Give the backbone structure.
Amino acid sequence: MPPKNDPELVALRKELEDLYNNLKEEQKKVADTALEKECESLSDVPKIKITTKKLMKGHLNKVNSVHYSGDSRHCVTGSLDGKLIIWDTYTGNKMQIIPLRSAWVMSVAYASSGNFVACGGMDNMCTVYDLNNRDSSGVAKMVRELAGYDGFLSSCRFLDDKHLITGSGDMKLCKWDLETGRKLSDVIAHNGDVVSISLGPEGSNMFVTGSVDKTCRLWDVRDQKQPKQTFFGHEADVNSVCFHPSGYAFVTGSEDKSARMFDIRADQQIALYKPPTPNSAFTCCALSLSGRILMCGSDDHNVHMWDTLKNQHNGTLSGHENRITSISVAANGIAMASCSWDQMVRVWG
């Protein structure tokens, strides 16, 4: 590696900075109005009254990830206690406990069909379990171990029961065929760790990724050779991305203590959301079914909410006693699950 003050490197950095600033200027020229201004005439969203409906205890260490099944009833959580737990969120009961080979789990995913769950983390692989089949010890059967990463597995999402996409700490985005265990595509997706993936609405074939390189990128599932668009604006790691239900926008939560909305058609940021006291980073984000309410989990142990259109802070959900790591909204929009370093999983509604 050349030294940090290498003249060529300094010149290239300067060129990149200039290009980025030019890009921002050009974007400003076409931004003829602000989202809040256009939505002034809309009535305010009433104060949202959401409470903890179920407090689900069972993990013995930090819970790092939660994801709902397509049935809006079951969810899966992964914890540093080396367990995946499948929960019935209506009753708060544990349906299955799956012991993992590695305790360092960072991401979990539930296939929308409810047939499979996947997880991965510091073991540099993605492991898939079939919830309808048990092994000799009565635990959900491991059906695939997807290896071949040079970095931790940070995110995974099922496209369907046969295909999965993963993002990892080696800057890569991979698409897998689960029947054969083969990689269908393998691309350097960002200039830093890929940390979050969000799939577009059903039938859109699009998904978005967030990275520690401060950018978000839009991809087409059918052609993953290169991104369709790259979005700038954040000043630190993009920890979480979430597609808007309309398919035309997405929101982000970042280490720079802000959440933002990017419009795909405008090819730029259209809203910046900050909490009343911006003193904590956002670790995760999600949208209500209408897309009107943005929810972001934070280092400050709370979930912050905004009216996305009028850019008004709409309250906080408190209850967790440590950093919130992940939130997932049920497909029917009726509930949201959150998990935290306090070892708890909460269902809000």
